[in-house]
TrEMBL record:
Gene3D superfamilies: P-loop containing nucleotide triphosphate hydrolases (3.40.50.300). The keyword Transmembrane helix applies. InterPro entries: NACHT_NTPase, P-loop_NTPase. It comes from Nonomuraea gerenzanensis. This is NACHT domain-containing protein. Coiled coil: none annotated.
Amino acid sequence: MPLDAQLLEVPEGLLAIVGGIAGVLTLIFEVALFTRQEHALFRRVTGGIELVAGLAMVAGGVAWQLTLGLPPRWDHWPAYLALAGVAFVVRGFVRVRTAGVGRAADDVHALAGRIEEEVWLFPPDRLTPDSYVPLDLRRPPYGRYPRPRDREAVAELTRWLRSTRKKPCVLYGESGSGKSVVLRRLARDLAARAQRRRRPSLMAVYVDLEAMPPRQEGDQRSDEELLRDHIRTQVGGHDPEMLRRLDRIFSGGYDSVVWAFLFDGFDDFVSAAQSATKEDTAQRWLQAVKRLKDGSETFRVVVASRDRLVARHLGWPVLALSPLTLARQVAFARELGQEGVGGLLKSMNADDELRPVVTLPLLLNLLLLHLRDEGGADGELRRDALVEAAVLQRLGHLDSARREAALRAGQDAAYPYPPAAVTVPGPDAPLNELVKANIARWRNDRLECVSKILEDYFVTGWIIRAGRVTDARRLFQDGRHLGALTAVLRRAGDDPVDPLRRDVISAATTLLQEVVETAGPIEDYRAHLSREPREPFPPRERTFAWPPVALGVFHVILDSGIALHDTELRPIREAAARMVVAAFASGAGLDQRYALALLPLLDVDVALWAVLRSGAADSAVRGGPYELLAIGAKVYERLTIPQRLVALAKAMRTGRLVERALTGRRRPGIAAVIRSVIRTLQLFGVALFLVFLLQVVELAITGDPVAALVEFVVVLLPVAWFLLSSVGLLGRPPIFSTFLLAFLAAVFAAGGLWRAAVALASLDPVTILGGLVGVAFVTWPFARVIDVIMFPEQRAWHDVVLPQIRVLREAHTRLVRQGLRQRYEQLQLLIRAGRPLKGTFPLFVFLIFAGVSLLDLPGVEGEAETEQKLPILGWVLGAACAVRYGSAALRVLAERRDMRRHLSRGAFDRDEVLAHLHRLTSHERTARFLKNLCACPPEQLSGVVSVLVDLDRTFDQVIRLVPAGTTRRVPPAVWEVGLDFDTPGFRAWLVSYDAAHPGRLSWMVSDPGRIFPVSACLRRLGVNRVAIPRD
């Protein structure tokens, strides 16, 4: 058969195969989808099959035609095959485009329209954030996910909901921070987006839990069923078609759409529920929310709450709404037509008491409306006065009697004990004046304020009108109106005979005495204040957890602004001290952060201990916690100079703390020190920038561009970055440039001393005078920083102009009159503070080269200057190497000397050896200590044989079960696998030791020479290393 004829027979078989496959697949999908009544999906699938088959036919026809050559002939099959493919492509494309969106998309579109209508966004004249301003979402210190920056809250939550994370999320924020606004806006934006898209993939359902009716007596439905029925009622209403759509969603039948349920009003719903305790009720309903979410893989859940601890035991991630920054505040004001309030907002940000007014969207809105209506910032701008002024302005159109009646009716309706039996009154009733003024609203035949802050205002008014706080205990336990108690206590002030203050303080004291025992505090807490910062606590049977009632009491006392150290508050301070010590003894990281937040309430010795303890190895709040800014003036004065440097280094390693310290101009203590240090570095930075700018220009003009570029990159760029950021133009001051500027100040101070030495050696009075003036100028920044750290109080003018005098006088007093032992301990503390800089010796050498190269020797120029700089560089590098490597040798000699001194006093004690091992700060010192210990005479080791045996067993266990080179904590179960110890309490000590020094045991066994002394010592003592069976 000719080749042409054979080729003509091929497409007939090809067409049969392609058509047969397409027909069979189409028939299968048609039957399957028709039985499920998925007509739209049927058209999309079959159309897609025809589209793919048509493309294959077109490609086959074109390829075949190319084999036959061009131009094509109409009596050949390739043209017909290609034309048939085109027909299939057109038909498949038309079927796909004309297919409906399917039942899932139909349901989403219908529900989106209903939700967009039902979700209530605040009208422009309501006392709530009327214009949405993007809020930052940041990770709390105990969060699990990366911290997003400068993103809108709605956009960030949308990204979070689209991610693959399965856990529910808690959206945390204070009253007035915009939680409801964010959730409502998110639901409305997603509903609008779903209506615009043909096949939406994400949909949100806003659920107002506060509107959920309480469980009726005899109702046998589970909590999950109650939540589901409430969602059906709130969204579907009485529309049977809408209810059927919701039932299909809850049945989990739609895998192509992610459904996000946004629960708002959780705190008020829990407080109103009838249960034993608020915490138990919260946990029960959170479990119900979790079960609802577990009903489908496509369900997501966000719960808004004012309580950070609400989901702590469930391990849910917590996203916190950050306070509004100054830039966002100005943008907020601009949207309300207030253009010239930037200066006022900046000054209010610098005031600790006024800052909440401008960082919370609701209060900022009240402030801006007040400024708009009053025409200026005259009058009181405190939180309580601002809310009162806003409410009275809204009711200003009423006469005094009518306004007073409306306020009294609102107070009676808002006070919760007993709940007022309020029914919807007539249109002329006083309560309706509040509704007309958009201060309150009717919901389910119940009057409620549009904001929690306004509700606290009316509760406060009821208490002040009554003259007593008879329900203070219930208000503390309830937790819904802590703001009202704070306002009452703030208004009562420090008058000890004021009945309002007496009632609140008495109820707080009684409650703390009752709940302090349930949290697992330490009875004799003062016995632990003498512990070293790194000394471990003995194992405790109970772990500590802050009772929510206690936290509420402490926050009310702190936020009220009353004198915290009155005799009347002594029981409250004692309870706080016991809980703070317990938090560091057996609490988690979040518990320890709450403990540091109570520093202003504690006695000085307890606050000092908490600050030092926060830097211990087993503390979970290392790395610059925000609460360090709470170190007040009294606590700071009790810190030694090395302790102050430790706290200052920890604080300045976190840029947000520096930013917060700069904005809080009235903060005393360490915040004031940070401000003074930054201001001093700013002055030094300006002078340094100008000097090096002129030098760079001169080098560039004289033809040395390389040196000009080096100075520009090494000095000018970091200094410029620091200067611009420290005044708020580039965010917070960068940590690197801040410490670099401090280092350059020290380098210039050293250069100034060198110049002074050269001037004194010349014996020329004029040269000597000029050298002294020069050294006073170049050492001023460094001396000023040291003076600020040593003396944070107000200074005389001569101490500011010549801080070197007071620094030298104090240095002589501290370094000459104190013993060597105390100076050694202070040096060790400073070394621990600088541990984050470990391993930067090459960088230090580079900075030495840069510093010496930039040094300008007087009276020497050209090559002669280079020749004289080389010996200086050699001496400086030699001194640095001597300090670097000589300090290690001196440390080894000191350890051996301490060992011999201890041996002279008698045998070792096992508890003392274990405590000393726990205190050692490095791997190398641990290995040296064990080596020196095992080299002691046998009679000196009689008391520690069991410790050596248990250490040897521990090393064997690490070799067998722990991965080599790990730097993580060993699971405690490793010490339970076939291992017995002779020393009492050794297993508990081992767990705490490994937690404080993770990776050290693995490092020890990585080199046999480090653990050989222990086994060799046991053989020398003739001790059997076989484990003793357990009883």
